[in-house]
Fold each of these.
Amino acid sequence: MRRALAELREMGKELRGRSVASLLEVLGDVLEAFRSPDAPARKQLEAELPEATGFAPATLREGLDAALAHWTRGALRRLVEDELGPELGVGCRRRATGFPVTATLLAGALPTPTLLALLAPLALRSPVLAKCSVHDPCTARIFAQTLSERDASLGRALRVLDLRREDEAAVAALLEADCVVASGSDETLARVAAHVTPPRRLVGYGHRLSVAVLGPAALSGPPLQAAARALARDVALWDQLGCLSPVALFVLCGSDALPPQVATELAAALAEAERRWPRGRVPPRAAAAIAQERVSAEVRAAAGQRVSLHSGAAWSLVVEADCQLRPAPLHRFLRIHPLRDPAALEAALRPMERHLACVGLAGIEAGGGGADLPARLAGLGAARICPLGRMQAPPLAWCHDGRGVLLPLARLTDMEAGV
């Protein structure tokens, strides 16, 4: 592991001698290879991921189409220029450089965060040593293969390792990289942080969750039907396993009682989404959690609480009587909470503000009582606010965890006049 770090640091000298334009051209080509359904890299990803991750093929294809729709060459160049300035700051007052080596501890089963985690340090001309996620052993390897085929020299600046967490000595050596990027639970990040001390940098992405909000303008008729279909798609893609997947729907209905048509329409939309995009493999522990929460809802309803359960073989919808935070088993399990007004929504979301990734909106009218809702949500720390149906299609430059994509991985130097 230490030899690999040393070799990558040497490779970094060559990498930093390359022009930014040539680098972004190669990385843009690699992005296009994953965007295009007919490209070999995309076909290989679609062929290998269902078995490795458990996602159903149709659901995987739809998820990739949505997530990569706007990840273009142009979007990559705009990301670099917006965050770092033209040509990574060359010729500008502020100069941005990558670290000699960036180690990336990949996590989760979704392929798109892995693609971005590998691409971002390379865009800064920092070689990458990546530990594969145990839930997705395919994406990083296919990315590295595609990169090497497009540019052998740049391909040597990326090493992908199938490393097990139990190999403590190897993991400790990996964490000796100049910059360490880690994703996972808050507990996992705390363990990593104990090994990464200054001047080395730790960039951590911890537990995040997303929710949806339905406003008064989408509580009936065609607007409700459209919002239900959009939300069902956001829930179905990636089987609700990503940080952008909504785990709850808050309905601004002016009452503590949910209009019955909301649950009816959403149940129908979830059933239709299952027909189009089947749910994938569910681990035994998750299946047990889903069963337990279904039973809990039925027991609370039998005890006289204003709770109802709507479910199919592969989806669950629980209408709650309050906004109490309860377990979210994922795998297409959604809770609905009726609310009187935006102030009640703000109070309901405040306990989760440290972890709020995305809020999807529908039925919020500019001239209505919720006109200031986006500003309130931003004040709660939401990293992204978007229309329902687009929660799983973030732009390349979205501020993950409220930060930039490249800036957390960069070292900045101010070049003052006279130098």
Amino acid sequence: MTTAIFSHIACLDHDPGQYHPECPARLSSILDALNVEKFKGLAWREAPMIDPAVIELAHPARFVDRVLGAIPPMGRAAFDADTVVSPGSREAALRAVGAVCAAVDAVAAGELTNAFCPVRPPGHHAEPERAMGFCLFNNVAIGAFHARKAHGYRRIAVVDFDVHHGNGTQAMFEHDADLFYASSHEYPLYPGTGSAEERGVGNIVNAPLPPGAGGREFRAAYERVVLPALDAFAPELLLISAGFDAHRADPLSTLELVEDDYAWITRELVGIARRRCADRVVSALEGGYDLEALANSAAAHVRELMAA
């Protein structure tokens, strides 16, 4: 078994505008970084177009229809000041969800050890009935609900190390004790959620980090709070919201992580997956807005997935 990359060129066609940080070059930079000799062991899979009915596992049908119906035939439209769509956004969004669900299928079938889905638009801010924070549909949460319906997994965990709290994933998970969501993030920062007191039904673990925190504080939060809780939860499948915008070079935060911090947390997470869920890990891209830091951090993440 091996590590696979699930992506599609159509994810480059989601174009929120020339000066928008969530730009197509984010994906290009990652694909270029992975398309080199040292990653020749990767399997590459094309992300399929998901049936919109699968999205309805996490989002009401009326919301799915509203989002897809708002995508313009030309020009751009906006759900809010941050969340902008273009004609290519429909296929990009459906393939972003499709990538995560196809990766779940392949990992569940034992075809792969794990997978990384460099796709866009990202997903973890998308609430059940609200597109926000650059996100249209919650790719990882949909993947979790798909894993339940298609493969019978009951206990599913999401760990989110994006610098912004995944309010959407938390909102979708917080009332279900068989779903686990843990997030490390700068706090206070957009979207304003993610305090340590937000615990759902005991299944939500937030590890807020103060502005300016670096690798030492990040690792301590995981060692003391997140990893023990994840291990105790004993998931059947682990999903990762892999945002790389806590990097010291990123323009949208003040945290001070470096590539080795992302390699470290990936090793820790795959270690728990090895013990608890037969190595089943699916990771999906969230944030990261300095192109060089994003590419290097994603490469560090994938190297550790390949070593699992």
